[in-house]
Amino acid sequence: MPEQLIPATITIADRSYRIKIQSKDEEVVRKTVKTINDKIIEFKRQFAGKDMQDYVAMALVWYATEQNTNTTNEVEKENIAGKLNLLEKMLDGQLQSS
To answer: Which residues contact 5 (CB under 8 A, 6 or more apart)?
Structure first.
């Protein structure tokens, strides 16, 4: 049976949004919202005089880039692990045939 969605109110850049999420995701969603809001505050300090939408856009680009970087790093780790396993098998084969 699928988990029931629970209502949650999140605030990003001083605007509230009512969303429905699975209860198991609530902590992750809240931490993500906090990270985004912290980044918006950081950009406001760095780039004074911009519109709030500019800060939200900057935070969105930053967040998406972070996610892609993490995904790319995981794929690279998996590729390296696969190559090391292949190399290990080749070395084992050479040692057994000697």
So the answer is: 20, 21, 22
Burial label, 29 (beta-carbon count in 10 A; 0-12, 13-18, 19+)? middle
Structure tokens at 12: 């990003």
Query: Would you write out the chain's pLDDT as a tens digit for each of its 98 residues?
Result: 567 899 999 999 999 999 999 999 999 999 999 999 999 999 999 998 889 999 999 999 998 888 777 666 676 777 777 777 787 777 777 778 76
CA–CA distance, 77 with 89 (Å, rounded to integer)? 18
Helix locations, 13-51, DSSP H: 26-46
**21 within 8 A of 3, measured Cβ to Cβ:** no
Q: How many CB atoms lie within 10 A of CB 55?
A: 19
Closest CA to 36 of 15, 54, 62, 17: 62
